[in-house]
Amino acid sequence: MLDVLKNIFDTFSAAIFVPIMLFIVSKALKIKTGKAFSAALYAGVGLTGFTLILNSYTPIISKVVKKMISNTGINLPAFDVGWQATSIVAYATKIGMIYIVIALVLQTALFFLKLTDTFQPSDLWNNYSYMVWGSMTYLITHSMILGLGIMILLNLYGLLLTDVLARRWSTYYKYPRSTIIALHNIEPAIFGMIMDPIWNKLGLHKVKLNPQTLQKKLGFLGEPISLGLFLGLFLGILGNLKSLGTLSAWGEITNVGIATSAVMAIFPKIAGIFAQAFAPISQAASKQARKSNQGEREWYLAVNDATGYGEPATLISGILLIPIMVLMAMVLPGNQTLPIVDLLALPYMVQGLIALSNGNIAKTVLNGTIWFSIGLYMCTYTAQSFTTVAGQVGITLPAGALLITSFNILGKPIWGLIFLAFISQNPIFIGLTVVVYLILYIGWYRNKNKVRDYLDKQAEKNSLEVESK
Q1: C-alpha dist (Å) from residue 45 to 34, 157, 172, 228, 410
Q2: Where would you say this protein principally sits, based on its record (predicted)?
């Protein structure tokens, strides 16, 4: 059975899973078959479009990122192999594949019992984030119970955080009734929620650094297509500092500039196609709520986080953080992690921060710099365990690397603390992680509308400041 599941996940991508789930949800809401089919097809086309553009863009930008790192002369023992390689490790472990079955039942049950507002099975692929932590726990403790236990608990924490973030993400990225669920890419939002009122006290919401203001101030130079060009040229120059006198260097620099500009220009059009998929279910849910004379349930369909990658503020923040995180890796005392492949995942990693700050690039870059720097230490601590797990499933180390890690997946301070509690095998520490979850969940369940309204008001402060100037 596990082999069959693995073959399914190896064969079908999010562009297949999401349309199927969307069609099922649409029929459950009594949407006509034609509309349900069209919605599902729009979702599949949109996700495929996101994948095609990112698969074309990644090889172009990855070359200059690797050159930039090489030019710094950094030599750290823990090599970042990226989230793609990490997902392969997760799906190659037996305990990980066992959890897929558990996750499908758990996530579906929680949604239909109304214990969560997010329908997670539509993004089953991203369960690998739980599976990595569970596999490392099992490796260290040799306990199947602890390995599965941490995956279940992380899943519960992830759903809770997703529920909190869902409305804000859906509103900002303009995808009705949809949100991201990936454990590794929602975690930074915790730090963002803590820091936002602090940044506002310091007046950072008055720093008008967002795509709308840049376009207003700079005219055509501030349009996303122009910003993409300048941002790409900047990154290309950083990667070719030692060869700026050569024609080939400027060929690469301009290529990165045009490619980044293309992402900025094309991505919103694909996003528009993808958003059309959710209009029928949003209308149907509202109609059913009116008929039943009950308040409409606020629920969200989990979607792949590629849906937000190329949004202007997201891509700008992510690219600006690339050289910053290389610098932090160089100067942080005790850090042994060399972020490489997952630097390209930074636009995935900042989406929660962007949504919470309503596109405030200044806040996002500051939050990202602090939180992702702490994440480097968690990568350093867990690198040995992950390297061992990867070795057991046949993953070979890159040349010159002593250890491997994933900056995106394992560089998560909060999830890392839960991991430390479980590998301690101390009932008190493990029990504490469960108690904290229960307290947070009860508080959320009783005050969910207040929390969501608060986050919306905090986000509005950024946009209101822009409009008032």
Answers
A1: 16, 31, 22, 24, 31
A2: membrane
